[in-house]
Write a structure and sequence with these properties.
This protein is α+β, with helices and mostly antiparallel strands. The chain is built from three helices and five strands, in the order ββαββααβ. Strands 3-4-5 form a three-stranded antiparallel sheet, with no helix packed on it. A two-stranded antiparallel ribbon has the order 1-2. A hairpin with a 6-residue loop joins strand 1 and strand 2.
């Protein structure tokens, strides 16, 4: 599985799945240098697609369409978090 680069020691030690569960209040420790790694509060903006999908799911009448909207919203949110939210040292 792919690993991401630690912003402190620049070694690929952070698993992608760990970054996906990081928020501004949570941290992960680099296994190489021991730095505490997190994401900034800008990461909260990655949740906007899911919030839009949640509102749209309440409006549509079909349960199947609502489920599809939520899955697509979650996937877009995850992609944005992975691609555009940088890791930072805290």
């Amino acid at each position: 599985m792919e690993k991401l680069e630690c912003p402190n020691c620049h070694q690929k030690t952070i698993p992608v799945w760990r970054k996906m569960f990081l928020g501004p209040a949570s941290r992960v420790t680099c296994s190489n240098c021991g730095s505490r790694i997190s994401v900034s509060y800008v990461a909260l903006l990655a949740g906007i697609p899911f919030l839009i999908a949640l509102v749209a799911a309440q409006i549509v009448g079909s349960l199947a369409v609502a489920a599809i909207l939520l899955v697509v919203g979650a996937l877009v949110m995850s992609w944005i978090h992975y691609k555009f939210v940088p890791l930072i040292v805290k």
